[in-house]
Amino acid sequence: MTTDRRTQLADNLARVEERISAACAAAGRGREEVTLIVVTKTYPASDVRLLADLGVRHVAENRDQDAAPKAAECSDLPLTWHFVGQLQTNKVRSVVNYADLVHSIDRERLVTSLSAAAVRAGRKLDCLIQVALDAESGERGARGGIAPDGVPALADALAAAEGLRPVGLMTVAPLTGPYEGRARGAFDRLMEIATDLRAVHPAANMVSAGMSADLEEAVAAGATHVRVGSAVLGVRPGLG
Ligand SMILES: *Cc1c(COP(=O)(O)O)cnc(C)c1O
C-alpha cells in the first residue's frame, strides 16, 4: 500500500517536474528560477512524509484545522510550510507556530493580528499579499485577496509590522470576470503589480501563481513559485 502510494507520488512528481522544466525552457528561464510548492491539503501526514522523502522541500496548506496537526506530525522533516488559504484572525496564533510563509494577506486587520502573534511566538513570518484580480477597488475577492490598488498600502503595513516582512504577491486565476479563461492575462497583470511593488520594496520579489491547471501560463508570465496540489496528490474529493 505505502509502496504503491510512494510510486504514484513519485510518478506524479516526475510529470509535474517535466511540465515545469518544459515551461521554463519555453520561456527562456532557468529551472532554478521556479520553486515547486506541493499543496498537501486534504491529504494525510503520511503523504507529506513520502513527498519529503522524494525530495519535496515546500508544502502548502489552506486550513489551519488540518494543517496544524499535520505540521506537528511532520516537524522532524526538512520542510518549509506555506499557508495559502483564507485566514481568520482567530487562527493566527496557531498558524504562526508552523507556517514559514503566509501567501494570503489581504487586509490590514490580518497584518495587525499576525504581527502580534508572530512577536508573541518569537517568530518571523514572510508574507505575500494575495491579489484578487477580479475585485473592484476597496473590495475583496470571492476567494480572498485584495483589489490591485490596495497592494501598496498593505505592503507598507507589512513592512512596518514587527515580526512580518513583505516578500511578494500571490494570486489565483479568476474563475469569473474579465480574466475568466485567461490565466496568462491574469498572471501578466500580476507581474505588472509585482514590478510596481518591487520599486518600493525591493526584497518583495516572490510571485506565487499557477496551480495544476495553469502552471505553464504562470511560468511563462514570470512566476517564481507554483502551487501544485492535485497533479501531484490526485484529485481531491469534494471541495478543498
Ligand atoms: C488548492 C490550492 C492550490 C492547488 O490547486 P490544484 O488545482 O490542486 O493544483 C493552489 N493554491 C491555492 C491557494 C489552493 O487553495
From TrEMBL:
<dbReference type="InterPro" id="IPR001608">
    <property type="entry name" value="Ala_racemase_N"/>
</dbReference>
<dbReference type="InterPro" id="IPR029066">
    <property type="entry name" value="PLP-binding_barrel"/>
</dbReference>
<dbReference type="Pfam" id="PF01168">
    <property type="entry name" value="Ala_racemase_N"/>
</dbReference>
<feature type="domain" description="Alanine racemase N-terminal">
    <location>
        <begin position="12"/>
        <end position="237"/>
    </location>
</feature>
<dbReference type="GO" id="GO:0030170">
    <property type="term" value="F:pyridoxal phosphate binding"/>
</dbReference>
<feature type="modified residue" description="N6-(pyridoxal phosphate)lysine">
    <location>
        <position position="41"/>
    </location>
</feature>
<protein>
    <recommendedName>
        <fullName>Pyridoxal phosphate homeostasis protein</fullName>
    </recommendedName>
</protein>
<dbReference type="InterPro" id="IPR011078">
    <property type="entry name" value="PyrdxlP_homeostasis"/>
</dbReference>
<comment type="function">
    <text>Pyridoxal 5'-phosphate (PLP)-binding protein, which is involved in PLP homeostasis.</text>
</comment>
<keyword id="KW-0663">Pyridoxal phosphate</keyword>
<comment type="similarity">
    <text>Belongs to the pyridoxal phosphate-binding protein YggS/PROSC family.</text>
</comment>
